[in-house]
Amino acid sequence: MRAKPRIRKYPVLFTFLIILAFAGGIAIGKLVFSTHTTKTIETEKALSALPKPETTSGERGELGIDKNINESTIDNYLNRPDSVYYDVRMLEDPADYAAIGGDSHLSGIVNGFEVVPYPYLVNVQNLPESVGKTYDGPTLYTEKDGSYTPNFKESEQILSDLFPKDKNIFLMCGGGGYSGMLKNMLINLGWDANKIYVVGGYWFYDGKNRIEIRNPDNTYSFWKVPYHEINFENLTKLN
Prior knowledge:
Elements: H1 11-47, H2 58-62, E1 83-87, E2 108-110, E3 114-115, H3 118-121, E4 141-144, E5 147-150, H4 155-162, E6 168-173, H5 177-188, E7 196-201, E8 210-212
Parallel strand pairs: 1-3, 1-6, 6-7
Antiparallel strand pairs: 2-8, 4-5
């Protein structure tokens, strides 16, 4: 009768292998964590190089457009995790911006910018006479003599959610006017002026991150726009 094969057990070796694997896992975990931490530190160092906001000179300076970060240089500052990017034009503005060489429609945006219309945030004043009047419906705030009064219970929360105070804020519009007005509004309401950049106007942008919204047949593909809608019907009116 043939003897059964003997099964040899190696409890000590097996235990050693488990300990080795466990130790290796810890070492790999520390390496991954260390690499991640190093990359985070390197990223933070790389992101610390933003120039301080500085208004340019001349007519563009009157709009608040920045000297260093503007339509010519914004491509160098896109996609920063410490920043938010907003184009504050309307999709279709009632004002006649074609009268000053612009476009009343949102004909294109810079990739990375989201859209929230300035005329929905506060009543617009002091537009050029040739442009006429813009939207005059409900707004989150009313501006009078340099003071901003909320019109809805949710106004402050919406503004804080859109424009976080702990982030750098890059603002664009068509020619620079709306974005300059919005910077003034935010500063008046307690935002840090040193974290807000008026990039200027899309009409003067000639970078590599253009997204065309206007089609060759002069229709507009607004579905391409990352748009923030403010539904005033769902808000609680204060007065």
